[in-house]
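User: Structure please.
Assistant: Input sequence and predicted structure:
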Amino acid sequence: MTDTVRDVQNAVKDGRVTPAVRTKFQAVALILREERARVRASGASEGRRNEQLKRLDGIATTLAVAAVRDADLLALLEEDAVVSSAAMTYKRDLLSAAGVAPEPEPEEEPEDVAATPVAPPERRAVPQSVISRQLANPFLAPDFSAVAAAPQRSTRPRRLGRWDLVPALLSSFERASGGEVACMPLPPPSSAHTPRGLELMQHQGQVVAAAAEGHRTFLLADEPGLGKTAQALLAAEAAAAYPLLVVVPSVVKTNWAREAGLWTPHRAATVIQGSGENVNGFADVVIVNYEVLDRHMGWLGGFGFRGMVVDEAHFIKNTTSQRSQNVLEIADRIRSRTVRPLMMALTGTPLINDVDDFRAIWRFLGWIDADRPLPPLIDELEDADLTPADPEFYPNARHTVIDLGIVRRRKVDVAADIPARRVADLPVDLDGAEGRSVRAAEAALAARMVERYERAMAHRAASGIPVHTPAEPDDADAGPLDVEHDPADGDAGPAEVVDVEGLAAAEGLDVAVAEVAAIDHDLVRRVAKAELKDSATDTGENVFSVVRRIGRAKAGLAADYAAQLARSAGKVVFFAKHVDVMDAVEESFTRQGVRFASVRGGQTPGARQQQVDAFVNDPGVSVAVCSLTAAGVGLNLQVASNVVLAELSWTDAEQTQAIDRAHRIGQTEPVTAWRIIAAQTVDARIAKLIDSKAGLAARALDGSDEEVAASTDVQLEVLVALLTDALRG
């Protein structure tokens, strides 16, 4: 077995993970699980058991290190992964070679044709709101008659009945490309379904127009940065494909919800988290990540979806993985209930290893099944009157598949459509212990400022100063006030409580507006200034430590997204502010087998240049991990057109300087900077404030008297907003 493990390890290291390697990997993993259970249950001495377990753990560690470099191997370690017959056979061979008699396979019982088949139980969770939706009209039984009555073209085998066509179709993309980009003919762009105030780019409007004209299956393989999310959402609008199911990687599910609110604001969107307690069962757009899909298979399959989008569709390329089987099962159930549903596979990387990666995506789209092409693909191939023995078959087959809905545009192809440089925000949810740590730190910071504010208000009350002064939020210099005064030192009592409802009635305000009016914004600003001043020397929780916590919590998600970009779009420049964040990111890249260069402070000029040269000249180095402060200027990294900003700067100028490492003379493609933003934290406030200050420098250069914003402006405004929200809530 040791030799087999070594074979797997070497194959992963060399990038040669073939089906045979996956079979070996799964067989060894099965043996390890069974052997570990046997040793634990054995009657051997504790020392003997520990020795055997230590040896097994060493083998398991080697397998785990190999698995993190290949997503398909990692999927085979899941408890519900499908065990292939080849893996079972190889397992028996390994046990026999080791002198262990494998357990006899259970004899298959004869099938009782008279018995009533037992349906598999609905899996895992069913959210209460989904049950409520089902009960909303309990007397309306689902009607699938339209599917049964849908016209079908004759698929009676003619010349192609004896051919194994799926391998031939896959081969056509290797043999007959002729240098042509794989893109179906598209109609003129349409903006009919675009919300007011937003504008689609020309290439985006073409896909929406195709959906409006009746096209229903798309392999949307545009490069990252070309707006596939917006195209999918508006295509669903054009096709009336609601309710719509969207299956995504965990890192982008929050962004999908935000984009749905932006491009289809009249459609309710819901994100499935964990067991789905907070799911809105009446939503039009249901967003779920691959990792929790299995828990919701039962109700998702019968929900009545009229469309399905799979983002980063290369995640399902291994048809034997549980993840892929879940997606394919739901897609089949949707097709069995809906006539011509909208099915969209989104990926900038449709091919990871070879053309066989197309197989699962084509099955999801309903172009093929496990063995053969399905209508209308088979009908089009038959009509061509060609077979794989004819050289003309392959270019014709390739065009036929492309016309079913493959859409591929590169940045260079649509450069006139998109800005030369743009910033795209990618909000992420911080889950688990790190997310809780960030929220606790923000709460502690807000609580300290609230206490400071209340002490100052109590001092005002004790001094006879009116508690509520109608200071405007921008009135930052209304006069001196000792916000550090402790009322415990004098005879001051508690601060007067403002009657918010009375204020609302007297002023004719909404209660929510009155809550803001009841806050002394001048005092809020001065408390925030005092907090910011103390943060420079305070060793406790402050705005800088909170931001650093957020950076560490985002590190893994940012690294995952950068790795996806590197695989789909080529080289990526990755910026972080703190050394510990850079360390965490580089560890993540190492686990994933992503080669990187590292440019950080403290390097000698020679070492720094060596890292830059490796990124620029070595095709195998995918990512340059750069310090925002040490590498934000003086570098030429225009071999990349994608920049990831894992941590936000306090100024737009520093952010722009980082992006300009790639957006320079010699850059031949538009540059997209992806800002990873922790949703519902001060990270989101910082991004918004940076954007609001972004135009000041340009206006100052144009002769305006307005001052250019400093980093302290953003830091202060973050604290002001944090304190104001705490006082309101």
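The two ends are 61 Å apart (CA to CA).
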